[in-house]
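Replying to the earlier thread about multi-chain prediction with a worked example.

Input:
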Amino acid sequence: MSYDADIDRARRLMPLVEEGLAASLTEAATRFAISHPAMGTILVGMATPGQFEDALAAVEKGPLPQAALDRLSALRQAFSGEAR
Amino acid sequence: MEFRTFGRTGMRLSILGFGCGAVGGLMVRGSAADQERAVARAIAVGVNYFDTAVLYGDGESEKNLGRVLQKLKPADVVVGTKVRLAPSDLGRIEDAITTSLEGSLSRLKFDRVDILHLHNPITGEGGGSALSVRQVLGEVVPAFERLRRQGKIRFLGLTALGDTAALHEVIGARVFDSAQVVYNMLNPSAADALPQNYPAQDYGRLFDATQAAGVGVVGIRVLAGGAHCRARPNVIRSRGRRRSRSDRP
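Result:
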């Protein structure tokens, strides 16, 4: 996946936030990553101590609820057939 | 903070780890005061895994993490670092790994690291920056095992980048304890089948393989799909300009 295409697709996940399933896409991304039981620990890049606080706050909300995972899965379907 | 058992290592790691990488770059380019404040805060809230690599700032990340941990002296934190072999190392893999780890230990000011991860991508036949399955299992693993016997590392790790089939083969060999796996909202293929013609590498449910082999998973690139990325031009620089897809660190 190219970086630009990633950013474009990330924007198309905004319904997660607009529909109240997550407070922000960053929060959604962090909570998504810990939603699978195989995940042991996640690494989140940080430029500032404040970004650590964002990751911590997201992790403390726990894994995404099933409704959010289902919505995400539906939103992802639209990416099929696009270039990487 | 939630803690999870890290595969067969039996270690209980905080679900939020502390990445000391070039993405973001706090532990490479941040001020010493910010670095110390962030690590102290992380430890205070229960974070017990710290991940670094020689490659991050060409040793700077290890030096900075070592300096901060030396000062804070936390009990029971787990530190992982990485070794990335250059093409010129391939005739002398064991020596190169040993030399790299000695450098890491010296920068970190440790006698031992908990996990040593191979940082190269892994493909069927190797080439470029990638190692072949045969090089990993036949040369890297024996070198890592020797370091483990010497008490310089506790666990063997890899970075799950490269060809999906090669990654499954290496994890299925049950010789690694840790794998750093790409898993995010845009690419959930380590867990689930992707939709048809989906624009991402299909990792072929790699979590099934890690779970079967008792391999602990470190989630990487987890924020792809987070709007966060927009504010982080460092991401582009640290990945390098469009090298081959398997060549990104």
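Chain A has a mean pLDDT of 92.

Feel free to reuse this layout for your own posts.
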